[in-house]
Each structure stands twice: as C-alpha cells, then as structure tokens.
Design goal:
There is one protein chain. The protein is mostly helical and 63 residues long.
Length: 63
C-alpha cells in the first residue's frame, strides 16, 4: 500500500513539474570560431619562409 501511494505521489509531482520546463531557440545565432585552422596555416607558411631564408643565406645563419 505504501509503495502504491509513493508511486502515485511521484507521478503526481512529475505531472505538476512537466509544465515548468520550456525549451526555446536562442536569440543570437550560434557562432563557431575557426581561428585555430587559420593560425596553423600561417605558422606553416612562416616556417617555410624561414627555412627558405636560411638555405638561401647560409652566411647569415652559421651553424
């Protein structure tokens, strides 16, 4: 009997709380920041330029 009344109480509470939950779309659009890929591309280009500079001018960078 107690189990049945507890089940009814939980069911009743869940029905009362069901109206409180609302899902709505955000006002602003979702923004995805892709700066990581751009930074990697710049670093690769910079490394290639530096490598070319060192190989073309070995007297400036003695080993």
């Amino acid at each position: 009997m107690q189990r049945k009344s507890a089940l009814l109480l939980v069911t009743g509470c869940s029905l009362l709380l069901a109206g409180c939950i609302q899902v709505s779309a955000p006002d602003k659009p979702i923004e995805i920041n892709l700066n990581i890929n751009i930074r990697q591309e710049v670093m690769v280009k910079l490394e290639k330029d530096v490598e070319t500079l060192i190989t073309d001018n070995p007297e400036l960078f003695p080993q």
